[in-house]
C-alpha cells in the first residue's frame, strides 16, 4: 500500500497529482488557470481535440498528444498503436483527412533495444494502416529510474474538406447523440494486463484509427455538428465538455449505451463506471435529427461502426449538464469526473 497514490485527491493542492492528467475537472482547471492564460491565442480557445487552422487558403487540422501507458503492450495493442491512432483520431474529429505525423521517443536508460524495436514497428504498422506518413521525429534518453521504459509524443497534420465545420460549440438542441460502438473496452483491457486480472472472456483494446469511418459519415452529410473520441475520462467527460462548450443539455438513455457484458462485469467487480472508462477506437457524434438515420446507417456499414447506436439527444434544459434516464425510470446526473479512475492508460 505504501506505493499507492490517489489519482483524484482533494482540490487546492499546490503540486501536480495524477488526477491532473485524467481528462476530468482537474485537467480542465489546469488548462483554464495555467496553460491557457500563459499561451493565449485564438486557435487554442476552442479547446477541441485538434486546432483548425487556415494557411494560405488551406484549412488544416493540427494536433499533438503524449502517451505514457503502462504496460507498453496490452491485449489488442501497444503504446505504438495508441500513439498513431490517438493523434489520427484527434485530427479526424475535426473532419480532417489525416496526412502526416511526427513521432518523438523518450527512452529510459537501460530499456531493451528489442522493446524499442517492437514499439517502433507498431508505430510504422499503425501508420500504414491509418494511411498516414511519419514525416519527422526525435529521440531523447533519460537516466535510469527517471522514466518508465518508453514514452511517445506524436503530432499530426490533416486537411479539412471544404464545407466541413465540426467543433464542440456547434452542438444544438435537437441533435441526436450517436456512439460508434461498445464503450469501456480499452481501459479494462489495459487494467487486466497491468494487474494480472482474468475475466471469463478475454477483453481486448478497441484501439483503431477512425479516419475512414469519419470519411464515410461525411460522405452522407458534411453537416456533422460535433465529433469526439471519448478517451481519458470516457464518454462522461467527453459529453460534459461538449455540453459546457455549447451551453446545451444532454439527455442519455442509459439502456441504449452499448456496454459489453465482460466490461460491465469487470467494472462491477472493481467499482468502476463504464461511462468514465477510456476508449481508443470509438467516437461520439452530434448529428442534426434530419440526418441521423442516414449517418447511423453509414456508420453501421463500416467495420468500426457496426455496433453504432443512438444513445441520447441535445436539449435546451439544464445547459452544460449531462443526465441519464435509467432503466428504472429515474434520472441521474452524469458529472464530469474529478480525476481519472484508471491512470496511465493512454
UniProtKB/TrEMBL annotation:
All copies of domain PurM-like N-terminal, residue ranges: 49-160
Matching InterPro entries: HypE (IPR011854), PurM-like_C_dom (IPR010918), PurM-like_C_sf (IPR036676), PurM-like_N (IPR016188), PurM-like_N_sf (IPR036921)
Pfam families assigned to the protein according to its UniProt record, in alphabetical order: AIRS (PF00586), AIRS_C (PF02769)
Entry-linked Gene3D superfamilies: PurM-like C-terminal domain, PurM-like, N-terminal domain
Record domain PurM-like C-terminal: where: 173-317
NCBIfam families reported for this sequence: hypE (TIGR02124)
Record-stated family: Belongs to the HypE family.
Name of the protein described by the UniProt record: Hydrogenase expression/formation protein HypE
